[in-house]
Design a protein that fits this description.
Layout (H helix, E strand, L loop, with lengths): L15 H25 L2 H14 L4 H25 L3 H9 L1 H32 L4 H17 L3 H12 L4 H8 L4 H8 L7 H14 L2 H14 L6 H29 L12 H8 L5 H35 L13 H19 L4 H29 L9 H26 L1
Helix pairs in contact: 1-7, 1-11, 1-12, 1-14, 2-10, 2-12, 2-16, 3-10, 3-11, 3-12, 3-16, 4-5, 4-14, 4-16, 5-6, 5-14, 5-15, 5-16, 6-15, 7-14, 8-12, 8-14, 10-16, 10-17, 11-14, 14-15, 16-17
Length: about 425
């Protein structure tokens, strides 16, 4: 035998395939939470955070931090519902409350998805213009890329591509670090909250709508159901949702801080009107070329991921209400309506962008619209959690009260801030 090492059957070295399988299992379960959270920091959210920092310095930073647990609470409910019932959000509403209520929820979803698609494609058009590429070239190329990603892959492959694209959003952390914000100003500004100012409330509503988005509820529950995650996956799914909530809000905070430290401290603060303007003002500390490339990667990563997720959500949501086949595990010939709706959404968004629109104003307005839709979406989410969850997944009495109050307060304040800001 000599000095040969004997590997025990249960040793990790005895079965490297088991380790690889375990890693794949973790990534498989974590995926929906991470994807939907990275998609949360899409082009509209990026623009809203930048506009917040430009106009109000650090005064909306505290709201971004407060939204972390709210975002987790909402998305964790979708995880529970997807695992416990094996059904998507709209499908579950149809089963529990009837077809009419399902179509009402999907109608709100369609409004949110169309608005989001316009902002995603506007963001990509803005990135193209940074490098002298016309919108008429950038937008069709982006649409073709997103069609190829979804039409040619299963959910697993789409998710892996989406995570890789979304990772570029972390570039904003580098931008914020290099902006060297004054920590004293940051601390003072984050606790200065002018709730009597209607323009502040308008952006507060936009920030709520940019973080707790209606289509995120639909997407994560549908993705969990499409993957067939089981009870034993719940703990890891929660971890993915928590990591995603922290990551997306880290990115949002980084964008706000970078804008506050650069645009917000300049003489023309608040005058954002294009992606090019935001890039030119936020990234000088990284050098002209490096800063522009990092900014472009961050915006394009968020916009591409957001557009894919939003278009898939629209196709899933309509399928759940109408009853057509709607899984990425089906090929296009097996689920023509699903792939057709996905394609139609992208083409509609592209048509709006090619007609011309102001990205900053549209982006902020879309996020305010999201805030106005929250009572519908979060209300149904809480009712489903109360009525549809079987015993092992049910909310405890105290946690149920906490969840109900949190979602109700978020919805009421979002609508109040939006209406005061508008009128």
């Amino acid at each position: 035998m000599g000095n040969r090492t004997i590997v025990q059957p249960d040793s990790p070295a005895a079965d490297p395939k088991r380790r690889r399988a375990s890693i794949r299992t973790w990534l498989w379960v974590l995926g929906p939470g991470l994807v939907v959270m990275l998609a949360d920091t899409e082009a509209g959210s990026i623009i809203t955070a930048a506009q917040s920092g430009a106009q109000w310095g650090y005064r909306l930073l505290g709201l971004q931090l407060l939204l972390i647990p709210i975002l987790f609470i909402a998305q964790e409910l979708t995880l529970r519902l997807g695992i416990a019932t094996g059904r998507g959000y709209a499908e579950l509403i149809r089963d529990r409350f009837g077809v009419g209520w399902a179509w009402l929820s999907v109608s709100a979803l369609m409004v949110a998805c169309i608005g989001a698609l316009v902002t995603e494609l506007s963001g990509l058009a803005g990135v193209g213009l940074l490098f002298g590429v016309p919108t008429a070239v950038t937008v069709p190329a982006a649409v073709l890329l997103m069609l190829a990603i979804v039409w040619s892959g299963s959910y697993g492959s789409v998710e892996r591509v989406a995570l890789a694209i979304g990772a570029f959003e972390l570039a904003f952390v580098a931008v914020a670090w290099q902006a060297h914000p004054d920590l004293g100003d940051l601390a003072r500004g984050s606790v200065s909250i002018p709730l009597s100012d209607s323009s502040y409330l308008y952006l507060a509503a936009a920030n709520i709508g940019a973080v707790v988005m209606p289509w995120m509820i639909f997407f994560q529950q549908s993705a969990v159901a499409d993957k067939g995650l089981r009870r034993e996956d719940l703990g890891r799914g929660r971890l993915g949702t928590a990591l995603g909530a922290l990551t997306t809000q880290l990115i949002m905070c980084a964008i706000l801080v970078a804008a506050a430290a650069t645009i917000g401290s300049s003489s023309d603060h608040g005058a954002l009107d294009s992606v090019q303007h935001i890039s030119a003002t936020m990234t000088p500390y990284l050098g002209r070329t490096a800063g522009r490339v990092l900014f472009a990667l961050g915006v394009s990563g968020g916009a591409l991921l957001g557009a894919i997720v939003v278009s898939m959500t629209a196709a899933w949501g309509l399928g759940e209400a109408a009853g057509y086949k709607r899984s990425l595990e089906h090929r296009p010939r097996q689920a023509p309506w699903f792939y057709g709706i996905y394609t139609a959404g992208l083409l509609l968004g592209a048509g709006v962008i090619l007609a011309g629109a102001n990205l900053v104003k549209v982006a902020v307005a879309v996020e305010v619209l999201n805030a106005l839709l929250l009572p519908n979406v979060l209300g149904f989410l809480f009712l489903l959690a109360i009525k549809a969850l079987p015993e092992p997944y049910r909310l405890g009495r105290a946690y149920s009260v906490l969840v109900g109050l949190t979602l109700a307060t978020t919805s009421v304040f979002g609508v109040y801030a939006a209406l005061i800001g508008i009128f």
